[in-house]
Hints:
The protein contains seven helices and ten strands. It is of the alpha/beta class and 217 residues long. Strands 1, 2, 3, 4, 5, 6, 7, 8, 9 and 10 form a ten-stranded mixed beta sheet that branches. The longest helix is centred in the middle third of the chain and has 22 residues, at 127-148. The protein is globular.
Amino acid sequence: MIETGLKELDKFLDGGIKDGLITSISGQSATGKTQLVFQICLNALHNGKEVLFQDTTGEFRPERLVEMMHLQKISSSLLDKIKVNRVTNTAQQIQGLSKTSLERYSLIIVDSVTDLFSFEYSKKEQSLEKHISFMKYMHDLSSIAIACKIPIIVTNIVRTINEHEKENLEESISMYIHNKIKLSKNSNGYLCNIISPFSNKKFQYTITPKGIDHCTM
């Protein structure tokens, strides 16, 4: 189990990110998805194993991790334990984990899990093919989490469509996610919503140079 660095979130998740489960972190742009992922990455390094980070967007920024490590007084040498794979197409994304020895990893992250599928299957007539391919990928991801007892975190974008917020490929991803962490903005700042089969909890948070923290207001 890996702590998130947010006591309220860990409490709602019964201790943190659990082995063998897929946890999604979703939200609109600039709500702190990557900040929270980096924070969990740093906590995972305390387990002594490595972290596998699949970057499908090309937006992985090690300098932000270094800044967080410096402020949290964590040795920057541990950055070597975060292995980043730059993934540029769905074939690489689908096959990547099956070709990787996973025993040395305490956490797998896919950031972002749906982007490449939406890009490659962008035509209307490809909608069914897109959902079938993505669902097969998510099934394989779930099997890896269970078989290897490794926690997997996936990030996903939320967009506003006709005044309603909708997660990308929401219908296809939801059945494979065990815990959902949805980040959003509201009139008080930022809101974290934790959705699981047994609960639906919310709390305010803030984004700081150190990472994500509870709102003190």
